[in-house]
Amino acid sequence: MKRTPTTDAAMVVEIAGLKLKNPVMTASGTFGCGEEYAGYVDLNRLGGIVVKGLSLKPRLGNPPPRIMETAGGMLNAVGLQNIGVDAFIEEKLPFLRTYDVAVIANIYGESCAEYAQVARKLSAAPGVHALEVNVSCPNVKKGGLSFGADPKAAAEVTKRVKAETHLPVIVKLTPNVTDITVIARAVEEAGADAVSLINTLTGMSIDLKTRTPHLKNITGGLSGPAIKPVALRMVWQAAQKVTIPVIGMGGIMTAEDALEFMVAGAAAVQVGTANFINPLATSEIVQGMRQYVKHHKLKNITEIVGTLKV
Amino acid sequence: MAIMNKQITIGSVSGNDEIRPGYVLMTIHVHRSFPEPRPGQFVMIRIAGLQEPFLSRPLSIFSFSRGRSHGLVKLLYRVAGKGTQILAGLIRGSQVEIVGPLGKGYTVDPSRENRVLIAGGIGVAPLSLLAQHLCRLSGRGANPAVVYLGAKTADELVGLDQLHKYCNSIRVCTDDGSLGEKSLVTRTFQKDMKKHDPARTSIYACGPKPMLQSLAGILKDRYFCQVSLEERMACGVGACMGCAVAVRDENGDKTYRRVCADGPVFDLQKVIWE
Predict the structure, then answer these.
(1) Which one of A169, A282, B137, B212 is most buried, by most CB atoms within 10 A?
(2) B126 and B198 co-located in one domain
(3) Given B195, B211, B228, which residue is the final one in a domain?
(4) Are residues B162 and B247 in the same domain?
């Protein structure tokens, strides 16, 4: 049974033809496939759910320790542990279909062909509304960053995925590059319908007592409020260089954070690490943004997008 | 569609006492409606309104009771790093945010009525709640469990008073002999092992990894044994995949499970010690 909460027209945004109830999505890898948080948050109230990165075959992931707390954030090197695209369609998607929420499948491949295969399978599955192409995972040996750091490779993956699907294609970009706008433009030219940024920043943490890295993988991806200024800067830069929508993320903890990203040029946002420390973070952010819209008497929240005064 | 029955509980610290150097017992007043924790479950706890430490800390539930006006959650923890250090500094009346109870607890099989608890150091925390639970199950007069409790030194042996409330058969040992027998807790248990018929015994253990690994070697696959594991966590609810532990799956292949959502209690023989 689907239950639709009253939609607030002032909060509705459209990304690449995909209508979202509000601009708040969950960031991939921080919200499982929705089930983990469904007891805390009414998933119907979210703009979208971006599920954990899916690969063609199940992935074991990296050996532990996989995470470490850092100042104002955390490092992770999970290594894309996931059940694989087939098991997702079989076991996880039926649950998500019981909700009236946009489901965005995050996809990952070790080769262009694998990205394409995963995209094809998901496009045929009812209940997937868009694809987010992960060309930015810093914690896997093959694929991931090796595609996202090279404009040609990123464009090639985008083309291959686009050729396999009728769904909107969002390409998730890495901040671990000299100029993110070059990659953003490359994937736009290759047909991407939107870009999302930023994925985590590669970092590390050391145990001085043992002089060993805290993570078994040695390096990991930094997330949390510590990276917000970097993310804001990159969203602002990218939004000026592409015409497709930019989805902003990186350390969003509050409605104010989310709104800052929109002012910088983001058409929508994703909330990630905040879910870990507050399972209600997404719904509280939606609530806070709604209050902002009311308070400023906006007809629609998109009125603030890219309104940064410089 | 899932039922929205989970929430964040705001608790008020009513006690936070260093009962031994580096070991703290925190008592938290929670709303009466706080769900009854199963033994082996834990909570994610953070200081309300504070940004540092950034992540919540996973702590085993040591004891739980429900009164007319409120519930009382007790957490026994070892000060191990920055997060627990800050928690240890909380004064009476401080507000904490609690998510939980979380995870899967110990399985109590009524047909295996000889229960053995083996605790090493701070590993006593979840086993105390189990002892409380078993005591309730077995009724007055009966001995709910045989307990083996070990620590490095007498100074680090915590939780004995609490266990005495429920169990009268407690073997105490320390690595240096400063209290009880001078022995590793696994060795003390091993000497007693013949008394415990594998067919009617359940063993529940919690402690440092080397202790659990040595226990795995002692028990082999002859006994039913569940252990509670510890790992760094971010979310505590199964989303971040941070707290992975290597285990054997149904086909005997290596896989990673989440300590928070698939555990923290695991069958000892399934755990792969890396």
Answers:
(1) A282
(2) yes
(3) B228
(4) no
Tokens describing residue B117: 């608890």
CATH of the domain at A123: 3.20.20.70
Do B1 and A29 lie within an 8 Å CB cutoff?
no
**Residues ≥6 apart with Cβ < 8 Å to A110:** A55, A140, A142, A143
Residue with tokens 């995209």: A119
From B233, which residue of chain A is nearest by alpha-carbon distance? A67
> Is A31 inside any structural domain?
yes
CA distances to A8, A258, A268, A290 from A287, rounded to whole Å, are 11, 12, 15, 5
Residue A14 within a domain: yes
In a domain, B221, yes or no: yes
B220 shares a domain with B127: yes
Q: How far does the CA of residue B85 sit from the closest CA of chain A (Å)?
A: 15
Domain assignment of residue A75, yes or no: no
Q: Best of B84, B96, B230, B237 to disrupt the A interface by mutation (most A CBs within 10 Å)?
A: B237
Indicate the helix (H) or strand (E) that contains A54. none
Query: Over the stretch B143-173, which tens digit does the pLDDT of each residue have?
Result: 789 999 999 999 999 999 999 999 889 999 9
Strand order in the sheet with B224-228: B181-182, B169-174, B146-151, B114-120, B201-206, B224-228, B265-267
Tell me what pLDDT residue A74 has: 98
Same domain, B171 and B261: no
In a domain, A72, yes or no: no
Residue of B99, B209, B229, B240 to mutate for A, most A C-beta atoms under 10 A: B240
ipTM for the complex shown: 0.93
Q: Residue B115: what are its φ and ψ, rounded to 5°?
A: -105, 135
Query: Is B4 close to A41, i.e. CB distance below 8 A?
Result: yes
B202 lies in some domain: yes
- Assess whether B161 and B206 both reside in one domain: yes
Q: Which residues of chain B have pLDDT under 70?
A: 1, 140-141
Window 209-248 of A: residues touching B by CB (8 A cutoff) are 224-225
Number of domains in chain B: 3
Which of B83, B234, B261 is the closest to A276 by Cβ? B234
Report yes or no: B10 at the A interface, CB cutoff 8 Å: no
Distances (CA, A) of A68 to A143, A220, A223, A226, B8: 24, 9, 11, 14, 23
- Is A33 part of the annotated catalytic residue set? no
Same domain membership, residue B95 and residue B34: yes
Please report which confidence band the pLDDT of residue A144 belongs to, taking 50, 70 and 90 as the band edges. Answer: low
- Residues of B with CB below 8 A from A37's CB? 237, 239
Q: What is the mean pLDDT of residues A205-232?
A: 97
C-beta separation of B60 from B236 below 8 A: no
Answer yes or no: do B223 and B236 share one domain.
Answer: no
Q: Containing domain of residue B259, as a range?
A: 231-274
Residue A41: domain span: 9-58+80-202+224-304
Query: Is B239 at the interface with chain A, CB within 8 A?
Result: yes
Interface test with B, best of A3, A35, A36 (most B CBs within 10 A): A36
pLDDT at A1: 45
Is A273 in CB contact (< 8 Å) with chain B? Answer: yes
Domain count, chain A: 1
B246 contacts chain A (CB < 8 A) = yes
